[in-house]
Specification:
- The chain is an alpha/beta fold and about 280 residues long.
- The chain has a single domain, classed as 3-Layer(aba) Sandwich (Rossmann fold), CATH 3.40.50.300.
- About 35% of the residues lie in helices and about 20% in strands.
- The strands form two sheets. It has an eight-stranded mixed β-sheet with strand order 3-4-2-5-1-8-9-10, with helices on both faces. Strands 6-7 form a two-stranded antiparallel ribbon.
- α7 links the parallel β9 and β10.
Length: about 280
């Protein structure tokens, strides 16, 4: 399975996109809502059903400090569907809680990888990129570890001039940070929301970053995913959901290819140059 992190330069629908991908996945999925600005799925899409403030990301720092995080982690996962094949780690209830997780992200990453090994597609909603400088992600109030360790990092960009302008410096920062501290800038790709005049090829060329997948501008379904309620007609046939289902293959292929590139070839020791 794979671990995909979604982030953005500004408010570009990261949570809505991540939720659509999690719900539309043909495999079991886990969405970890790690936006340092706070989670919205608990009160939005779920409308408070099936979850309380006693579970979620904000409780994991305390469990980590007490050494009980591995034992209690799954108690903080709530179902997004009736079958329990789509799980959510609800996000922070207050942005002020973000700094308490500075020492927890590493152990959380390990637990998310365990879920991946248990045949879950893991999606991380990392919210907006938070930086310390022009070349480094903030490690205190943002899930920098999860971005650096993901198989694929998707920068969510709308096809508008303002979104494109905001994305350009963030692409530069992500590239430099991933090269220095993560799995390399080859892990970075674009997830485009098609609600503006620019075409994917134009945006990919301008940002010098491959477009991995696109999602349509579907405000009716996006409203349901962000605020809850009912979709007119069958939810599975909504344009955003259908596109998210189609996007699963190129996203998984890109993530798997990246993982294989980083896996040492058999018979080649780490750090040894292969001349094949």
């Amino acid at each position: 399975m794979t671990m995909i992190a979604l982030t953005s330069a500004k408010s570009c629908g990261v949570t809505t996109s991540a939720l659509a991908l999690a719900l539309a996945s043909p495999r079991r999925s886990l969405l970890a809502e790690c936006d340092p600005a706070g989670g919205t799925i608990r009160t939005g899409f779920l409308q408070g059903h099936g979850t309380t403030a006693s579970v979620g990301l904000h409780r994991l720092a305390t469990a980590d400090r007490s050494g009980t995080l591995p034992e209690v982690f799954e108690q903080h996962l709530v179902p997004l569907d009736g079958a329990g094949d789509r799980l959510l780690l609800p996000g922070l209830t207050d942005p002020a809680q973000a700094s308490s997780l500075a020492g927890t992200w590493e152990n959380l990453h390990r637990l998310l990888r365990v879920m991946e090994e248990d045949q879950f597609d893991v999606l991380v909603d990392a919210g907006r990129v938070v930086v310390d400088s022009s070349t480094r992600l903030n490690e205190v109030v943002s899930p920098a570890v999860l971005l650096r360790r993901a198989d694929l990092v998707l920068l969510v960009v709308r096809c508008t001039a303002s979104s494109l302008a905001a994305a350009a410096p963030v692409v530069k920062t992500l590239r430099e940070d991933l090269d220095r501290h993560g799995a390399g800038s080859g892990a970075l790709g674009l997830l485009l929301i098609e609600d503006g005049p620019f075409r994917p090829a134009e945006i990919g060329g301008h940002l010098g970053t491959p477009v991995v997948a696109t999602l349509p501008h579907d405000p009716n379904t996006a409203l349901v995913l962000s605020e809850g309620g009912q979709v007119r007609g069958r939810f599975a046939l909504a344009p955003l959901v259908r596109a998210a289902r189609s996007a699963h293959e190129p996203i998984t292929v890109a993530a798997t290819r990246r993982r294989l590139q980083l896996t040492p070839r058999a018979g080649v020791r780490t750090g040894e140059v292969s001349h094949v």
